[in-house]
From TrEMBL:
Keyword DNA damage: no
Family from the record: Belongs to the class-II aminoacyl-tRNA synthetase family.
Species this chain originates from: Racocetra fulgida
Enzyme Commission number: 6.1.1.21
Domain Class II Histidinyl-tRNA synthetase (HisRS)-like catalytic core stretches: 1-116, 118-258
Enzyme class per UniProt: ligase
List of residues binding L-histidine: 70-72, 99, 115, 192, 196-197
Protein name, as recorded: histidine--tRNA ligase
GO biological process entries: histidyl-tRNA aminoacylation; mitochondrial translation
């Protein structure tokens, strides 16, 4: 249930992280961090049937602890402990979570349907509405589905259902304003296995793996790459007063699933695992101190570089380094260095442009698009 990642795979993962973080920051989110383990009582009773997937730990002092199952419950605990400091907060967190999942447990999730009796009792649905759940869960669509549901008198007789539909009308209005309504499907078959959701829930899937028009109970549902929803009471579970009952809404992005999708589309040999922009090399052996001095100047100027000793040009090609600074004893005596574009078809130690040693940084910044 665990694995290692090589440098090229990590380059893909870091790209995923940076893309996600940039979007979060664009919307004003800040980051926090919580411990990788919590007191068991913090996590207990928050995940319904999935609670059995929590990793439990026994520390030397006899305290019962557990590895975090997700990042939501630890955040709710954090918010309850610091609610006076955060009347409102947009936060993100990227960290590992741990679940005692078994491969067989990822199949046949549709079996949750057999809990409908308990669900209908707990949610207070009218008997005739409960009997029609099998028909309702086949429905999905956009605004036209909402219009259809508002004609269902039996459904509207339930106050919770009516309130939910009114919320969806408002949500669709906002989605239209943001210009993303065409990417949304209102799917009545959607269900989440966690107990703390109290309102809308949602999942994100790729275009290639969108849900089918007709629900087929004999097949496993399409996996999502992100999921979340609204939970109004979770923070209050950890607070000692009503002020701690803070409504929240969130989303969890499945980095591993996104990574798996990208890994199938990307040729690993074409992935650039490092960010080196310039190799500093010598035509002949030696000149180590001169190379070190040039490297230091480039680092000071914000240019990512490193010296290379052996197989210099082949390494440049393999690691997709765009430029090389090549020095030789004669060039240094003339106060010159040679800059070569390693992306050109010209190979070997020849080629490149001789420039004054004093103009090296200015020229490299210009070629790298860093000149201000």
């Amino acid at each position: 249930g665990t694995r290692d990642y090589n440098e090229k795979e990590m380059a893909i993962r870091e790209k995923i992280f940076s893309t996600i973080i940039s979007v979060f920051k664009k919307h004003g989110a800040v980051t926090i961090d919580t411990p990788v383990f919590e007191l068991k009582e913090i996590l207990s009773g928050k995940y319904g049937e999935d609670s059995k997937l929590i990793y439990d730990l026994d520390d030397q002092g006899g305290e019962k602890c557990s590895l975090r199952y997700d990042l939501t419950v630890p955040f709710a605990r954090f918010l309850a402990m610091n609610c006076s400091q955060y009347p409102s907060i947009k936060r993100y967190q990227i960290a590992k979570v741990y679940r005692r999942d078994q491969p067989a447990m990822t199949k046949g999730r549709m079996r949750e349907f057999y809990q409908c009796v308990k669900m209908t009792e707990e949610k207070g649905l009218d008997p005739d509405v409960a009997d029609r759940i099998g028909e309702y869960v086949k429905l999905k669509g956009g605004k036209e589905l909402l219009d259809k549901l508002f004609l269902d008198e039996s459904l509207l007789s339930n106050n919770n259902a009516k309130a939910g539909l009114n919320d969806m009308v408002l949500l669709f209005k906002y989605l239209e304003i943001f210009g993303v309504l065409d990417k949304i499907s209102f799917d009545l078959s959607l269900a989440r296995g966690l107990d703390y959701y109290t309102g809308i829930i949602y999942e994100a899937v790729t275009e290639q793996s969108g849900p089918p028009n007709e629900l087929d109970e004999t097949t496993v549902g399409v996996g999502s790459i992100a999921a979340g929803g609204r939970y109004d009471n979770l923070v209050g579970m950890f607070a000692s007063n009503k002020k701690g009952n803070i409504p929240c809404v969130g989303v969890s992005i499945g980095v591993e699933r996104v990574f798996s999708i990208l890994l199938q589309k990307v040729a690993l040999e074409q992935v650039k695992a490092n960010e080196i922009e310039v190799y500093v090399m010598a035509v002949a052996d030696g000149l180590l101190e001169d190379r070190m001095k040039i490297c230091s100047e480039l680092w000071e100027a914000g240019i990512k570089n490193k010296p290379k000793l052996q197989s210099q040009f082949s390494v440049c090609d393999r690691d997709q380094i765009p430029f090389a600074v090549i020095i030789g004893r004669d060039e240094l005596n003339r106060g010159e260095v040679r800059i070569k574009d390693m992306r050109s078809k010209e190979q070997g130690e020849g080629g490149g442009a001789f420039i004054k040693r004093s103009d090296m940084i200015t020229e490299l910044k210009k070629r790298l698009g860093k000149d201000s």
